[in-house]
Specification:
single chain; 273 residues; Aminopeptidase; 7-stranded mixed sheet
Length: 273
């Protein structure tokens, strides 16, 4: 992949557009050609911290009128859901990978040696080339939607291993809705989303242990009627039990309640609640 390749992919709706933007910032698996040789070649063959197959899981979005933005590059190049200043969003002792990670979630080194790890100049370059364009495009897409709709929703889609001991010792619940303690979306929208997610029969948490990352926190602006929600889901809901392969049967079950949830949000917007 060429260095000047766009760091995002846009999937446009194939029916009448609605006021929802879907962001999938951790589905990228590409590495820029000029950086590839710096990484452990074995570990980047299948970057483990990827939100695998989410673009496939949400492939129904265009048929609902939803616009989608997807990351192209791996979060190991730069994490689009961290603060550009690399300031942690949590202070509870959990270990979270950084803006330009040098290890994966398991603590394994990504680069061949420490000399190849990104310094400040390289981090600044990656911010300019990969991070800022993704966020600028989200801002532009939200601005476009706001011209057409009084109220819009940003849905930031994520998935995670059932257990990541560096974050918490206990397994994660099935679904975690993040809204930064009710700051990034209005309460009625959050309650509606939780209600619909719970119809799945799965365990649903609100803001624990994830409150939403930088995308949700920086884009959600209730006063401007831009409402941002992050949905984190356990990978084994739609992947094989070993979290390696896409499981069509399980994924189709997930798609049913995902679609119903997003349809309810579309109705919410149309009713002007």
């Amino acid at each position: 992949m060429k260095e000047n390749c766009s760091p995002y992919k846009i999937v446009l709706p194939n029916k009448k557009k609605v006021g929802i933007l879907l962001s999938i910032p951790h589905c990228g698996v590409q590495f820029p050609t000029d950086l590839k040789s710096s990484y452990n070649s074995e570990i980047i063959q299948k970057p483990d911290d990827t939100d695998w197959f989410l673009e496939k899981l949400y492939d129904f979005a265009p048929s609902l009128g939803i616009t989608t933005i997807q990351a192209v590059y791996s979060r190991w190049v730069i994490d689009l859901n961290r603060t550009p200043e690399n300031i942690s969003l949590y202070n509870d002792g959990r270990i979270i990978t950084s803006l330009c990670p040098t290890t994966n979630f398991l603590g394994e080194k990504l680069y061949l040696n420490t000399l190849l790890e990104p310094n400040k100049n390289e981090i600044d370059r990656r911010l300019k080339n990969y991070f800022q364009p993704y966020h600028q495009k989200i801002n532009a897409l939200l601005k476009e939607l706001k011209k057409e709709f009084d109220k819009v929703i940003l849905w930031d889609a994520h998935s995670i291993r059932r257990t990541v001991s560096t974050i918490q010792k206990e397994p994660f619940p099935d679904l975690i809705l993040g809204n930064n303690d009710r700051k990034t979306a209005e309460n009625s929208l959050i309650e509606l989303t939780l209600k619909n997610l719970k119809t799945s029969g799965l365990a649903v948490n609100d803001n624990h242990p994830f409150k939403g990352g930088f995308i949700t926190r920086s884009k959600g602006n209730v006063d401007s009627n831009i409402h941002a929600l992050q949905l984190e889901m356990a990978k084994d809901l739609y992947m094989s039990n070993d979290e390696l392969d896409y499981d069509n049967y399980k994924a189709n079950e997930v798609k049913k309640w995902l679609q119903n949830t997003l349809k309810s949000l579309i109705n919410y917007l149309n009713e002007g609640v």
